[in-house]
Design goal:
Length: about 350
């Protein structure tokens, strides 16, 4: 694993992050995958390509070493699942994530194809001891245009019924260009909340609200729910985090990293509602064709730290804005995920207090 921690990273962690994090953390959103068959070309136009530039593999050993390097003095338990591509090797990807979870004794989710029958899904979940499922829009039927995919196209009611009956987790990456402000997304999330009262719905990436323009009325609408939670994964927008805290409170936000993607050295900006990752010139190859990537150099590049740290700094800024206490941060970075994982059947060790 090629992964350099620089002086700028150490300063950011020691001066701005370390003291605000609990000694034990849970990372509710991480990917593990092997070098061969883990990350293939992003031929599916439903997927962005820039995450492929960070790592070509992420076995559990690399993941745990990343935590050791970026969170010295902390103990991190990851919730792991397979990478979302190549989707034609779903069995292989899931088999690898299960082996890695068992090797490390950590919780995991099953990456699920919408065509699976309910009986097949239930058998897999019970036989493998998973804590729930990960679903993704790239597995929706190929004939559906990317902009028209609905949640139920890749998370069918039959699967929701199984997960609800078992009391497990659904990790949901919402579709559609409107993201969190899209009325179809909001209607279907509300339907899941109302109909399936026993499952644990995690709306990933704050509903993909990476820029202010992505929010619309989404947080106001979903703030009226009682049970769904959001993870803060791969976002660096303190304004969005603060609005989420105002909408649902600190008990319904979860820390997630999206590792290895957030090992990227970058800073994110938004222009006209589009997020752009500013990265050091030459570090990630030719990014000129990617609307979400832009290179910088000189002193600006030298100040760039990890995407992961930028995410945490944004959470801490939002926490200060809304007046959270240290105990509330403990909930976001540990307690909330532990409560959900235990409800989904994962047993923490006696020393995990």
């Amino acid at each position: 694993m090629r992964f350099e921690v620089k002086d700028v990273d150490r300063r950011v962690y020691e001066e701005k992050i370390r003291g605000s994090l609990p000694e034990r953390m849970i990372d509710c959103h991480t990917h593990v995958f092997a070098k061969q068959g883990g990350r293939g070309p992003a031929a599916d136009q439903r997927l962005v390509t820039w995450p492929d530039r960070v790592a070509d593999q992420n076995p559990i050993e690399d993941l745990m070493e990343t935590y050791r390097l970026v969170f010295p003095g902390k103990t991190v338990t990851p919730l792991i699942f397979a990478n979302v591509r190549p989707s034609d090797r779903l069995y292989e990807l899931n088999s690898f994530s299960l082996d890695e979870a068992r090797k490390a004794g950590v919780p995991s989710l099953l990456y699920v194809h919408p065509d699976w029958g309910a009986e097949t899904l239930e058998e897999k979940l019970q036989a493998e001891g998973r804590q729930g499922i990960k679903v993704y829009l790239n597995l929706a039927p190929a004939y559906i245009p990317a902009d028209e995919i609905r949640i139920f196209d890749f998370l069918p009611p039959a699967h929701l019924e199984v997960v609800d009956r078992l009391g497990l987790i659904v990790m949901l990456h919402i579709p559609r260009p409107g993201r969190l402000r899209d009325p179809v997304n909001l209607a279907q999330i509300l339907e899941i909340e109302a109909r399936y009262r026993n499952l644990h719905l995690i709306v990933a990436h704050i509903g993909r609200a990476y820029c202010r323009e992505d929010v619309g009325s989404g947080l106001d609408v979903l703030g009226r729910t009682e049970r769904l939670v959001f993870d803060v994964t791969a976002s660096t927008n303190a304004w969005v985090f603060a609005r989420a805290l105002e909408a649902v409170g600190s008990k319904r936000l979860l820390f997630g990293s999206d590792l290895p993607i957030t090992r990227m050295r970058m800073r994110r900006i938004c222009e006209n509602g589009v997020y752009i990752n500013l990265v050091p010139k030459g570090l990630y190859g030719d990014v000129s064709a990617d609307e979400h990537m832009r290179e910088v150099e000189g002193p600006e590049a030298e100040k760039l730290t990890f995407f992961l740290y930028e995410e945490i700094l944004a959470v801490l800024a939002a926490a200060r804005e809304v007046g959270l206490a240290q105990a509330d941060l403990g909930d976001i970075f540990y307690g909330n995920s532990r409560r959900i994982l235990e409800a989904a059947g994962y047993a923490f060790g006696a020393d995990s207090v």
